[in-house]
Amino acid sequence: MLIKDMFAKPIDRDIRGVVKVGQDDVSIVKNELEEYVVTQEMQKHFRDFFASYVKSINGYTDKMGVWISGFFGSGKSHFLKILSYLLENREVGGKRAIDYFIEDGKIKDPAIIANIELASSVSTDAILFNIDSESETSGKKNKDSILNVFLKVFNQKLGYSIDPHLAALERQLDEDGRYEEFKAKYFELWNEEWVASRHKFNFLKDRVIQTLVALDIMSLESARIWAESTIRPYEISIKRFANMVSDYIDSKGNNHHVVFLVDEVGQYIGDNSDLMLNLQTITEELGIFCKGKAWVVVTSQQDIDSITQVIGEDFSKIQGRFDTRLSLTSANVDDVIKHRILEKTETANKTLEVLYENKETVLKNLIVFNDKVEKKTYRDKKEFCQVYPFIPYQFDILAKVLTSIRKFGASGKHLSEGERSMLALFKESAEKFMDKEDGTIIPFNIFYDPLERFLDHSHSVVISRALRNRAINYNQEEDNFNVNVLKVLFLIKYVDEIEANLENITTLMVSNVNDDRIELKNKVAKALDILVEQMLVQKTGDIYIFLTDEEQEINRMIESEDIQQTELIRKLSEIVFADIFTDERISIGGYNNRYLFEFNRTLDDVPYRINQAFDFGVKIITPLSEYNGQDQRLRMLSSTSQDVYVDLPEDISFLNELRRSMKIEKFLRKPNTTQIAEYEKIREGKYRDKTTHENNAKLFLKESLKDAKFYVNGDVMEFRTRDFKSNLIEALER
Prior knowledge:
Layout: H1 26-35, H2 40-53, H3 55-58, E1 65-70, H4 76-87, E2 91-92, E3 95-96, H5 97-103, H6 110-120, E4 124-130, H7 131-134, H8 145-157, H9 164-175, H10 179-190, H11 194-197, H12 205-214, H13 220-229, H14 238-252, E5 257-263, H15 265-269, H16 273-290, E6 294-300, H17 304-311, H18 316-321, E7 324-328, H19 330-340, H20 346-366, H21 381-387, H22 393-409, H23 422-432, H24 457-468, H25 481-491, H26 502-508, H27 517-533, E8 537-540, E9 543-546, H28 549-559, H29 565-580, E10 585-587, E11 596-598, E12 600-603, E13 606-607, E14 617-621, H30 631-639, E15 643-647, H31 653-669, H32 679-706, E16 709-712, E17 715-716, H33 724-733
Helix pairs in contact: 2-6, 10-12, 12-13, 14-16, 19-23, 20-21, 24-25, 25-27, 26-27, 31-32
């Protein structure tokens, strides 16, 4: 059975899973209302929101703030949009917004429906906007940035200019009953509509001046003074703004409400305490002046307590105003995706049930993870049918990936929640595999492609170069396994919940229930070796790390550092004799342990200390030495001396790790002569890498010492334990 034939609704239909605040086309709104899924969790959020909101309809409340939090891609923007339709009692396709909820049984609790009906019964201006999009394009945020955006969108909603100076003029003309007269006169004089041309005001000031003078609204001198004042920043206090909103509400009468629905406010504020104070004061003053008739509803990736904690100021007032707090969890997104995208036909469910029953044991052995954080796999055949062709862990991990990319890997502010929702990513991925047969599983690398155009150049260029690199992609395939492994490493680069080790990467690359895990693991291992060799990936211990373009450049600089063999031997000697085996004297059994004897300590014929001239000692032989693994030679040498020869296995893992650590250390000592923008941040990471490599070297060296051969008096000693220290003492006592 083909995957596309499994779904209850066509997988390639237009579902508008990508919801942008600002999209207002009737067909889009209709589609959103029809397709919107109210999960159990969302039903609770609707209940809490409208239970709080209706208090302002029946009486007075100063708790008129709502804080909606949830991870990136969780559907906060979509929820905010749906709230705006319900509050405004929007008519779409001949039906009220709430009718879509009632007729489709989206909300089954009559108490919630009653509250929504009550809320939509009063006239409401729902002002929905993305604060980052509406902010000034200069990117510089001052303490009044949020106030300026609120003023701009409020003016816009009332039909005034987005320029605050012009909006103030229009508002005054409106209050004086002369705005329509002004527009008519402007058209009469200049044969152009005022509203259509006001955005060119800086070039049309003389026209506006002459229109004002012609209507005797201002004298020529006053009009010129006013026009000159428009080049200065517009100043308005928060109190004045709140009073303006209050005056507007009063002028409308009939319990009119104004609701500011602000998308991505948490991302906009960040750790800026001035912006948080600005939002707090706006919310507080609107509460005081408007007596609950003006509401502020915001979305944020972090809950309000987390943000105020990070900023570290006392924001108890804003926490009090935002009394209603709604948190969207990953469970909610999972349910929406299962319902809107992955719902199956009865025939498909039966087919998948049989598939699961036949492959249950195979799947349990195929989809396994090797780290501390639990990952979801198929619980039973019911869940298999619900999420197929996906795997349960993908919901949680992809949510973390989206958040991490937004934080570390996105180009500027282009990757907004509205643009890349979880829903959109799952839908596009399923669509890509729609012509595959049942048994196909969507590998994790597929989620990279829909995100690529939003990524920072230093990340995306690595993938595009890899596709062109014949050492990685010999046949220049568009869909190349080695490059797909690289895509997976990028996606999980900043995700703490999954370790990028061989076992986990193998699981992420599973693409069919019939995959042979051992064969797939070997294929992944080869791909990783190639990517490490090409310096696109760094291996630290058993962890593989995707390298950005800038990280690769620094790694090339580190790799070019020269470490002499004598330096390596001295460092190894220091680790062995100052960290692992620290005894400088031992007692000899024949003297009843009454005397302590010093002994010589050397590693690859290099003395640990100068002036060592004792009667006996220990000689460590590493893979760097020509004697390493030379059994007959070592038997002969030990037979003619009082020394213990300790021959390490041929495994050079500890040497590679130590050499890498020393190269990083040498690089870090040098001054920065590069033009790399992220140099300091990458440098900080290299300090951590240095420590990790050194610790790995010690760990691997200790293992090698446990497996070492001890040569004494021409023989290889046999021990009861693998404890290097006790074995060495026993050998020295011979």
